[in-house]
Amino acid sequence: MNRDIKIARIVAAHYPEFIRSIYANNPELKSAPYSEQRDVIKEQEFHQYFGYEDHFRGMGVEAIDIVWDLESLQLQWAKEQGLSLDYDFLTEDKMQVIMSILVEQLRRFKPDVLFVHNARLYEGGFWQYIKERVPSIRWITCTMGFPLRNKMQAYGIDSFLCCVPSFMQEKYSGTVEKELFYYCYDARPQKTHKNIPFSFFGSTGNCGTMHHRTRYEYLLGLTYNADLKVYGKESSKIYTDNQRAVWSDYLKELRNSSDSAKVLSICKEIADKKNPVVPPLAFFNHQAVRAGLFGKAYLDGLADSLVTFNIHTEHAYGDVGNMRMFEATGNGACMMVEHGRNIQHLFEPDTEVVTYRSIGEAVDKAQWLLQNPAKAKEIGAAGYLKTKTHHSFRSRAEQVIEHFNRVLQK
């Protein structure tokens, strides 16, 4: 395997609440040196940001991870490098300034290839713009964890690493190559004592497009029928009096029903009215919902969970493979996940993870696991071992290098 290539991995910050919390908890950080800011963020174990460069370097490949739009970090880099950036963020386009810093970073590093996380986060033409200004770049590969918003987003990209098999069928103009590339995680030491019986971490999807409709229904049903605790991001949209009256009627029905099947039927009716907005889960079950967690706090929550629930969006088209699969198992939680078409390529169902095909089955299996914690721990340990041995950053880094070796020979 030829390791004589230079890889620049480009990541978008994407989670503003997480970034704000880091700087709020470290008031002096904004004026700290670039390396110190980077180290503090890296300590939060948010591997989407700085997950690959150490593994590439350990394999003898010159590499760098750049969170290109993390404003404070990038401006500090520019300052330390003596870049003369005459700008006023109140009157000038902030992104143009930040993009100019990225271009300069890449010109100085002179990468052969760019390895970009999540192509969906960039506007059409972004990568062609970068290519035209950094002559060393021979190839740009982007991971695809969600379908692109429009075909123009593929402009300038040479290949996609698709995180579920169904994305391999997406059609784009030109000769964009596609390869299956699952997410990964470096397993942390397991916790033996679990303080959270049943958890979910992530967006509840109550506001926005329809691709979270099923997730919302399942989460609501599980909070009532299996005491699921949701650590999630929700939109607090304000409703008209008429809308609130409708939701309040459903709330009364949920509270007054002791029949599990009836509760699930009500939850389905509520989710079916998502067009595309329904109230936060907290409106229907405020005791079940906590604030969302990010970085190390999120990973600690997974490690503290006996059982954790995972569900993909409708845009996965029946496949499974989101990042949470590997983060959950890599922290020793017994993960419940849909019985996706490709599940056996990743984990052994009901041995390394627990799968479900319907909300009724999810409720039944969750209740059984909570009544049999020793079995839940056994499955969690098996899933942990699978992620540790088969789904590590090192194994995916090797796939990335093999990918670039192949495409650069063309």
TrEMBL record:
Spore protein YkvP/CgeB glycosyl transferase-like domain mapped to chain residues: 287-401
A Pfam family the protein falls into: Glyco_trans_1_2
Domain of life: Bacteria
Protein name per its UniProtKB record: Spore protein YkvP/CgeB glycosyl transferase-like domain-containing protein
Source organism: Planctobacterium marinum
